[in-house]
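Q: Two folds, back to back.
A: First:
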Amino acid sequence: MVWSEDRAGPPNLIFHGFSRVHRQAISVRQQLLGDDHEEFLRSIESYVVSCNNWSVQCMSKGNFTAALELLKKAEAMTEADNVPNYQRRVVLRAVTFNNLCCYYRSRGKQNAALQFAEQCLRIEQHYKEAENAARTYLNYGVLLSTTGRNGEALEQIEKALAVLHDRERESPEVNLETSQMLVVAHYNTFVEHLRLKQNATGMQALQKALQVAGRKLGESTSQSSNLTQKIKEVQIELEKRLEQKAASERFRTTAGSFEVSQIFMHFQDSQAHPWRKVTLDEADADRVQEPRELTSVAEMCFD
């Protein structure tokens, strides 16, 4: 269900009304069919997926209270005590934790976001049924980067790339979501190297992001086109700033600053969406700057 302005009532009331009815239907199935019946387990999955989808819609509308309540409902439903014999439970729990990570990051609560990302990773590392380890690694890397742990962030991005390359080998046909995450992974690698003052290595990663985007994305969707265009803008701006830096070193003047942001992958809607702007070190700075909000040349938002 997608909420629109034409629906009667605010989205939080609509969603909570549906979730209440859905929960009642689950209880009826449990009483009539038993805990292990396929229909009962299917209704559990439908409920958790719906709560996650609705929470994302609430977040996109700025209704964070309703979003959190829905995610907490999904988290409670995936407790082991509720469905101990349901194998898909852990997959649904990982989905919910990833969205809780996105929620807390959007609210500026980095520690809480990190905790849910780590819980999600623990699930995905222990259960092969987990479906989006690459996305979790990417998001965890962004969160680590915002706390200054850039080396660890690079490690997480490398893990994401390994998962994505394995996925490509297993299924050679082009998958849009996998291709988008590959582009994001290479771009975020560039960002981390830039912050570590490893400009040459960073440029290689940026070139790789553009190559993958051109080869696998093209103009497949407006989102893909926007992603590719923004990365090209970053490349042009970076080359200009590096030229200014070289000139400033020759003539002892001050070069213009260059600031970029990582791309944070929202779990549910498969969009690259920076829930909060992230300021990185200036490429030609000699010291770490205090974080401040800005509109970056690399801000990537697909609305």
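A: Second:
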Amino acid sequence: MNKMKVTMRSFSSLQSLTSISANFFASKKSKLSPGDVLIFNLILHLSYLTLGIELWSAILCL
């Protein structure tokens, strides 16, 4: 049960970060600069890293 809560929280966090990033880039209405793409990729990679860490911690706590 605890593992399920952690998994759902992780996916919710990932969805929130992705949504924030998408809204930021949609609001720019201009061409994205290479720096913007780098920031977007960094946010996504950190989100997936966080998700992986939370899932592993849930598995190890069983």
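Q: And?
A: The helical segments are 2-28, 34-60.
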